[in-house]
Design goal:
It is a single chain. This protein is α/β, with parallel strands linked by helices. It has a single domain, classed as Rossmann fold (3-Layer(aba) Sandwich), CATH 3.40.50.9100. It is built from 6 helices and 5 strands; from the N terminus they run αβααβαβαββα. It has a 5-stranded parallel beta sheet, with helices on both faces. Strand 3, helix 5 and strand 4 form a beta-alpha-beta unit. The radius of gyration is 15 Å and the shape is globular. The relative contact order is 0.21. The structure holds 1,3,4-trihydroxy-5-OXO-cyclohexanecarboxylic acid. 1,3,4-trihydroxy-5-OXO-cyclohexanecarboxylic acid binds next to loops.
């Protein structure tokens, strides 16, 4: 059986000149970063961190941010940005472990997707070790706290150079 590589779409990113468009998409409960289980997810809010990221990449990329607690809204957003941005950084939260629908959406769009997790899901509960999304994504970055998002943006941009 031939399976198209999830990274095949890096060709799409390589061709374009200038600033790359990268969409960061966060799933359920990630609106509570900074408040939610700070021992696991840290004490910085995503608003704060996203501001830092935008500054850090201001010369290389145009970053956008979307968060929803709803599976359907995340799929709609993947469809919306998936044909216009150069890459997507996706932390689907707990939907990572359950959502065939999000995996199908990743496969349906053009932009390469990097799966991200703030925590090291492999040293937590067993159910977090299973991702429905990883096989549909170009790569996975996890366990580096909020810095996982920066590493994922770097990975997408490095593929473009
Ligand atoms: C998470 C890990 C998931 O297991 C969890 O449900 C989350 C956050 C992370 O970023 O570490 O909501 O994706």
């Amino acid at each position: 059986m031939f399976l198209r590589s999830p990274c095949a779409n890096f060709a799409h990113i390589i061709k374009k000149e200038g600033m790359k468009k990268i969409a960061i998409i966060n799933g359920p409960n990630l609106n509570l970063l900074g408040v939610r289980e700070p021992g696991v997810y840290g004490s910085q809010s995503m608003d704060d961190y996203f501001g830092e990221l935008k500054t850090l990449f201001s010369h290389r990329a145009k970053l956008t941010y979307f968060q929803s607690n709803s599976e359907g809204a995340l799929i709609d957003e993947l469809h919306r940005v998936g044909f216009e941005v150069d890459g997507i950084v996706l932390n689907a939260g707990a939907y990572t472990h359950t959502s065939i629908a999000i995996a199908d959406a990743i496969r349906a769009i053009k932009a390469p997707v990097v799966e991200v997790h703030i925590s090291n899901v492999h040293n937590r509960e067993d159910f977090r070790s299973k991702s429905m999304l990883s096989a549909a994504c170009c790569g996975v970055i996890l366990g580096f706290g909020l810095d996982s998002y920066r590493l994922a943006v770097e990975a997408l941009l490095n593929k473009a150079i």
